[in-house]
Design goal:
By secondary structure, the chain is mainly beta. The protein has two helices and 24 strands.
């Protein structure tokens, strides 16, 4: 088993370097990468096509790291202005990596003055990790007392749309760093202070966001800003990460990290009416790795991240040095 796993990892390394899988061990045999880095605790993951590698954030250190095929990591972004890095997405067309950042009190950089007071979008050079600019989104809502900027998505023109779990707004940031409130509406919340967690751009011309509290999948038109709840067979309670396949189907990850009623599950949703309603095309309600937070779509399959956040956000804020990227079955694609 150990030898087989090593062979699979070698195949993954060859594919990343050359774009050609090793014949003896097809890359689809690599179903799981166990990452390791001191107390990294990543919440966000993205696929970097320029490197053929995963990038992960860090709730503990605020960094963005490249994941090597053997699970080791190399820091790409280490900016003192980013206290905890959550959602991470690559914009390969513009050579950038975008990071949703906040301070939920679990970072080595957290202070009493910054906890729940910091939130924004960081934009960095994809090749070097150099800061291009930070956008402080808290300035758009000066009367609010707590922020938890958690995820972002990127439109085809490079515009970023950013969600805050504690808010009732979605923010818009242009490629030049100009920020505004794209939409603000109490319907984005569950009525108890919980807003959108995961957010994704859909090529049909709208955003899809999941409310982790009540499990609604929310559709926001990019043209009219119309807000509506997608009719689902079951609510996505504990909804966290979302990703969109090239065919327009959506992968949704749920957990119990932000909602006690949530479950560790991964589902694929499909719609025939422009996401007025959706059906479950595939579901894995008992995910094999605890605490999945989000998913990234790659040429090799859909990989779901479990960053051991249940340890970091536990009552004692303990840490551990491992995380897992687990590939979803082929049925999800």
């Amino acid at each position: 088993m150990i030898a087989l796993r090593r062979a699979a990892l070698v195949a993954l390394a060859l594919l990343a370097l050359t774009g050609t899988p090793a014949v003896a061990t097809p890359v689809h045999h690599v179903t799981e990468i166990v990452g390791h880095a001191p107390s990294l605790h990543p919440e966000g993951v993205t696929w970097d096509p320029t490197r053929g590698a995963f990038l992960v954030g860090s709730a503990r250190h605020g960094t963005v790291s490249v994941v090597r095929p053997d699970g080791s990591t190399r820091v790409l972004v280490d900016d003192p202005g980013v206290i905890s890095s959550y959602g991470v997405h690559v914009d390969p067309v513009r050579g950038r990596v975008l990071v949703a950042y906040a301070d939920l009190g679990v970072s080595t950089r957290s202070t009493p003055e910054s906890t729940y007071k910091v939130g924004g979008l960081g934009v960095f050079d994809l090749a070097t990790g150099r800061r291009l600019f930070l956008v402080d989104l808290t300035r758009l809502e000066p009367t609010r007392t707590a922020f938890a900027v958690n995820d972002l998505t990127i439109g085809p023109d490079g515009t970023a749309y950013v969600a805050d779990v504690f808010g009732s707004a979605v923010y818009r940031v242009t490629p030049r760093g100009e920020a505004s409130v794209f939409v603000r509406d109490p319907r984005l919340t569950d009525g108890k202070g919980t807003g959108i967690n995961g957010i994704a751009y859909h090529p049909g011309g709208y955003l899809l966001g999941v409310n982790t509290g009540d499990g609604r999948l929310i559709r926001i038109s990019l043209r009219t800003k119309e807000i509506s709840a997608v009719e689902l067979p079951h609510p996505l309670v504990g909804g966290d990460g979302l990703a969109v396949h090239p065919d327009g189907t959506v992968v949704a990850v749920t957990n119990s990290l932000g909602s006690p009623q949530g479950t560790d599950a991964v589902r694929v949703l499909a719609s025939r009416d422009g996401w007025r309603s959706a059906r479950e095309q595939w579901t894995a309600p008992a995910w094999p790795v605890r605490g999945p937070s989000t998913v990234t779509v790659t040429p090799r399959g859909d990989y779901v991240l479990s960053g051991r956040l249940e340890v970091l956000f536990g009552p004692d804020h303990n840490t551990t040095d491992d995380f897992v990227l687990h590939r979803a079955p082929e049925e999800t694609r």
